[in-house]
Amino acid sequence: MFSGIVEEAARVVALEKDGGNLHLTLSCSFARELTIDQSVSHNGVCLTVVKQPGDGTYTVTAIQETLDRSNLGLLKVGDEVNVERSMMMGGRLDGHIVQGHVDQTAECVEVRQVDGSYYYRFVYQVAPEMAAKGYVTVEKGSVTVNGVSLTVCNSELNSFEVAIIPYTFEITNFHAIQPGTRVNIEFDIIGKYLARLAEFAR
């Protein structure tokens, strides 16, 4: 379980294909604090630490289903990945409830700067049957983009906008997102549960 408050952008230092799996080795400031089997969010995808050699790097593995559903398969050595360690019980929930289960990708179609902040518009595919299950955005609701907990604005049928303050722009990989960039999105779990419960009320 995560909060969507990204700690920093880790750097990809190695990628290794292994059948349908992809082993990702990254470097970040807290790499030496990680332990084997620990969960870490990578662009919003919960992955398990499988190696921690103590040199400031660690390795996680993404299976084929994860690669198909997320943007992790598009990563190259040198790319930045938003990372967050799992929530601690008793801590503050500064973002919103994030599972680390990416639903799909979206494409950035516009970036504009407004009074020192940044607005990003993303377009995603919407299947009617999935929309009925809560896989949509709602105005002023929560959405996770590349692991970052954000508030939706200008929500439309298959697109939405988010506003990024300068601090978030600097410490996450949002500064590298431009039109054409594919990002991971996770819709709000509360909305999914409400949609599911509504099915039983019909």
Describe the protein:
This protein is mainly β and 202 residues long. The chain contains four helices and twelve strands, in the order E-E-E-E-E-H-E-E-E-H-E-E-E-H-E-H. It has helices at 64-69, 128-131, 166-171, 189-200, and strands at residues 8-18, 21-27, 39-42, 45-51, 57-62, 80-85, 104-114, 117-123, 142-145, 148-151, 159-164, 182-187. The model has no long low-confidence stretch (mean pLDDT 94).
Q: Would you spell out the secondary-structure blueprint of this structure?
A:
Blueprint: E1 8-18, E2 21-27, E3 39-42, E4 45-51, E5 57-62, H1 64-69, E6 80-85, E7 104-114, E8 117-123, H2 128-131, E9 142-145, E10 148-151, E11 159-164, H3 166-171, E12 182-187, H4 189-200
Poorly predicted parts = none
Q: Which percent range fits the helix content?
A: 10-25%
Give the distance, in angstroms, between the N- and C-terminal Cα atoms: 31 Å
Strand content: 35-45%
Give the C-level CATH assignment of the largest domain: Mainly Beta
Sheet/helix structural class:
mainly beta
Largest sheet: 6 strands, antiparallel, barrel
Radius of gyration: 17 Å
Q: Average pLDDT, to the nearest integer?
A: 94
SSE pattern = EEEEEHEEEHEEEHEH
Order of the strands making up the biggest sheet? 1-2-5-4-3-6
Q: Helical element count?
A: 4
Please sum up the structure shown.
With 202 residues, this protein is mainly beta.
